[in-house]
Request: fold
Amino acid sequence: MKTLCILVLFYIYSQSKGSLVIKISNNQVKNNEKTYLTLKKNIKISFPLTLCTRFNLKGQLLTSRPIFSDENNKFGFTLRFGVGLGKVILSDESLMFKIPTENDIQPYAWHHICVRFDENSQEVVFDGNIWYTDQHKKYSKEVILNKFLVGANYPNGNNYADTAYFRGEISEFNIWSEALGTEELKKLTSHCGKPLPEPDILNWSEIDTSMLTGNNFQSDIKILCRNSNETPTIYKVMPYFQNQEEAIHTCQILSGQLAYPRSIKEYQEWQGKD
Reply:
């Protein structure tokens, strides 16, 4: 007997300032709907640099998932799960880093990742843990831009639907003009609240809906974090048929538990929560 796995996720919640969240769905990709972030003024990006973002991946970890890029392919960030690599592009330089096998990435859960690099060193910190660190000289020309393609990349100007894309939610995309220290990044990626020091190149708290195309909504910042005091229940219907043992195992991997709807109406309500 096959069972549709219904995942019960326990998220953290408390009252705090809202954060703007970008939502990218399969329908947007199929309909060739691009999600752009257009800033009100140009920003200049060069070494040293720190960039951070929160993301909630709603899909399998089998392929490339670009977080953002620019149309000239001079600045971008992609997590390539299929080959276990991450990549940051800045002008003529690129930082490639290995995604650890024990990476603790869970679909349908919020994560926080930061990448910092300067002329002499590079580091990637994920949810309070160091993923990658290296000591290599890198040189980069200054990049000036005011527009990002969010959740996709198309380096050759290809159709959006034919390229790698991100399905899920992205928020708290911040950029600093300095290479933050290791302890600062550990604290930043394992705590909620306002990022400190305050981002000086791109500050997500200054982004408003007029600067975005596509779907977006406001969310309590605590819901975007993995640590909190309260745990409301959220139901997710996984689109895979499995036997009961497989379904229980899948839910455990995603830090949830198997749930059973008490009626058709309740099942339909659970399906509608994406």
Notes: Residues 244-253 form the longest helix (10 residues). The radius of gyration is 19 Å. Helices lie at 26-30, 182-190, 244-253, 264-271.
